[in-house]
User: Fold this.
Amino acid sequence: MLTVDGPRLLSALEELGQIGAIEGGGCARLALSDEDKAGRDLVVGWMKQLGLAVQIDAIGNVIGIRAGQEKGGREKIAPVMTGSHIDTVRTGGRYDGNYGVLAGLEVVRLLNDSGVETRRPIAVAFFTNEEGARFQPDMMGSLVYAGGLGLNEAYAAADKDRRSVGDELRRIGYLGRAQPGVIRPHAFVELHIEQGPILDEEKVRIGVVEGVQGISWTEYSLTGVSNHAGTTPMRLRRDAGYVAASVNVFARALAREMGGNQVATVGALSLRPNLINVVPNRADFTVDLRNTDDDKLKEAEARVAAHIADVARAERVEVEAKVLARFEPVIFDASLVDRVERHAQALRLSTRRMPSGAGHDAQMMQRICPTAMIFVPSVAGLSHNVKEHTEAADLLAGAQVLANLVVELASE
Amino acid sequence: MLTVDGPRLLSALEELGQIGAIEGGGCARLALSDEDKAGRDLVVGWMKQLGLAVQIDAIGNVIGIRAGQEKGGREKIAPVMTGSHIDTVRTGGRYDGNYGVLAGLEVVRLLNDSGVETRRPIAVAFFTNEEGARFQPDMMGSLVYAGGLGLNEAYAAADKDRRSVGDELRRIGYLGRAQPGVIRPHAFVELHIEQGPILDEEKVRIGVVEGVQGISWTEYSLTGVSNHAGTTPMRLRRDAGYVAASVNVFARALAREMGGNQVATVGALSLRPNLINVVPNRADFTVDLRNTDDDKLKEAEARVAAHIADVARAERVEVEAKVLARFEPVIFDASLVDRVERHAQALRLSTRRMPSGAGHDAQMMQRICPTAMIFVPSVAGLSHNVKEHTEAADLLAGAQVLANLVVELASE
Assistant:
């Protein structure tokens, strides 16, 4: 077995973490920003040092390819691909995304150092704008790669300052020539921190990810009437804030009642005029619902919508709803998922099968090739937070599972 | 009987409403702003045209005094005082405050035009910063006048841009020399729009105000833990936004259950980080509770506090509470309240006894002299809103009740 070099992997994570470093130990490398460019340049430099052929595609995805034994002729042999992303949210951690990319490079380094040639090429990729913190939709690079979003639509996506993905790709020098998706992998495996508390809480070392929860994001805008908080009897109120609050309370009760992995969150909310002594005439808020079972997700959506309609009618508040995102659950390749589990168990690491609650590039890749994910614990489940942390031993354990699986896949 | 001159009163309201006029028909004359100064200058000019002796006190309250028959010696005879305020909220209406001041001047005009001398002097006052929209506390001028707030404390109150009441009074030329409260009125009567929907809904012309509801304003700051909305199971959440929502829903149910004139409002709320896919780790919100019965108000306060404590404990969210304002209910002078009712009924105007849900300068004046208020309807109860409106017939009816009561009081 090729054994992952712990200090080497940790020092690469540390070095990439210095780019866009922010107070508290986190990173801010928003997609296609100067910091993202600096991070990309660093990782591309490492790829070249490792002898990888670096391909940049038209959405800025970067793929470093280590040649396999079989060079093939016109019918090129499909590579095994691993990777993730290196962009971050505004208050991101050091491991989210970066870990999967740098662990992939560590696998290449191990093979190089030991002079091992694999039958299939091995590709290490980082995809553009996974986070969606600056440009929507998130998972943009992998979505384009898998054919789910056209290039022109992706280029037109603009940030708050009206700078577009197309312009920013050109500006930072990552508008590549390759057609996204031209390389169809034999398999794709993504190693990632859990970004949730389950493994940490249960003291399990490796999460065997069976799929990704379906996501339903709806933005509601409620319009009532603003009135004096002292002089308006309760029965005459048309309080948009009250209706919004009742949705939050209902969503919590609904998730508890449905159980399983149903989750429901009201994360964003703003009231107008937002004054202590005025009944709010406007409430804008979001409802985030997720489930691995699409029928149950639809049930949750319908029940939240029915609740809002009922309470809004009673309060004489108008409701506008806008679907911001709707992804069906993704089920990873069962056989590849089994192999993640087997490799972890062979290393005597405790495992747990689980869905991913967060979106990942892997869910897009599953559209075009057998895909699986490996999770490692996040301390206290913190994510998108400068305090995001994974213990070194867990980082190494996950990288070792990845190495063993990738090498096995590459020998097929 | 001296009959109020309708067109003259309406035209004065119209002219004052032009100063700081904003789209939709309302006014923005925040206390001690340039617009407030312009409004003050206009009204002071009118006072002087009417021959009133204008006294400006050290908190900027302006009192125009029409001499009585008895000039008195060292023991001056106490004047009858009426008035209100002319500052507005940022999106204020044209009648809130202004109506009471200009109706007072109309009473003086009537007496002047008919050459009537009253035994007691008649004073028309406008008090500084009633609204509290720029500087806290609200009702500042009348509170200082009644001895409830020291001058230095009032001077130190600062707006968001750190400009203080003292500096702004000096800047606009309204830092007067008179000691606030030096004139102790025989009685104080304030005429005001209801700012609520009750009179309009019940088609009653005159509200006979028996007192002012007690007010309890509390700001809560809840601290939980921000976590990924997809990956964090419901049972592990520490969602500050959820606790805030449950308080809003509880407060509504509580007010309904307690009945009477108990009202409860969550008017201001902000979440952090306020992102669709992040469990809020922070919620800052306000609870506004009011009742005419202080024991019931205390009960409401205690039950809201107990609810927050319970839910926050279950959610493992920390609670900080800060009392922003707490005024006990005010009961107006019973005999003066009776006289308001009698004068309205003598004019064959329908009446209704009611509390004021809003705060008014009159509640401060009740501390130093017999005080009462006269309410006229607000269409649809809209207030602190550019659509605030009172029908002309109602404006005149209220002013006539005021005139008759003030003239009677001044003859005593």
User: Anything to note?
Assistant: The domain at 214-327 of chain A is CATH 3.30.70.360 (Alpha-Beta Plaits). The mean pLDDT of chain A is 96. The radius of gyration of chain A is 23 Å. The first helix of chain A runs from residue 6 to 17.
